[in-house]
Amino acid sequence: MNPVYDFTGQVAFVTGAASGMGLATARAFAESGAAVTVTDVDAAALDTVAKELTAAGHRVLALRCDVADEQQVAAAVDRTVETFGRLDLAYNNAGIQIPPSDAADEPAERFDRVNAVNLRGIWACMKHELRHMRAQGSGAIVNCSSLGGLVGIPGRASYHASKHGVIGLTGSAALEYAPRGIRINAICPGTIDTLMVSDMIAKGELDRAEAEANQPIGRLGTAEEIAQAVLWLCSPGAGFVVGVALPVDGGYVAR
């Protein structure tokens, strides 16, 4: 049974919200009373999400946004504040995976692309969210890293570099903004049963049985379990939690 949160009167901003962990978190924020801006590069899927949340009686703003483009990020955050009047909560979730590669053979273009989305995208989102939260003197931000931000895996150097970077970005910004009433943390999901993971399995880049065995709990995580961790980090229950990189990984990094 999940805890119940009350975010009535607050406004949440979620990237990568058309599916997976972003969608589950947007739903959870909305069901907890928040008005929610959902963003994604997939406009068609985003439209479906917006219709679902609106039909359920929630206040929602859907905006196509490529987080690798800082101007698009700034416009989406500004539009959120223009529409709802404030910004209280953010889950910077948008990210991509790239195929495994020998570190000596990986093209620079692939390194640049994964860091443009996974690291620079979170930097841009946090930057523009903080502009508004700083003026309010309050807010909570959760950045999506990965168990790949805490460990290394052969063939994944560029992806893991992007996720390690998120943790460094989070920690430094958290120290800077904690005295101003804004809490910033990171979440580090393990292997979660999402479309991205399903695609990796279909391409032969990940073996499901092996992935399940590598998590001591013996299964993949769910998007809803990630959402609950994000909501907790944004809630008053985590009011003294600042600058952490929280593993939600079925015990992977505890081995």
Automatic annotation (TrEMBL):
Species for this entry:
Amycolatopsis camponoti
Q: Please state what the protein is called.
A: Oxidoreductase
On the tree of life, the source organism's domain of life is: Bacteria
Please give the SUPFAM superfamilies that the UniProt record associates with this protein.
NAD(P)-binding Rossmann-fold domains (SSF51735)
Question: Record's family?
Answer: Belongs to the short-chain dehydrogenases/reductases (SDR) family.
Q: Which Pfam families match?
A: adh_short_C2 (PF13561)
Tell me the keywords, alphabetical order.
Oxidoreductase
Q: GO molecular-function annotation terms?
A: oxidoreductase activity
Gene3D superfamilies associated with the record: NAD(P)-binding Rossmann-like Domain
Q: Does the keyword Oxidoreductase apply?
A: yes
InterPro entries cross-referenced by the UniProt entry: NAD(P)-bd_dom_sf, SDR_fam
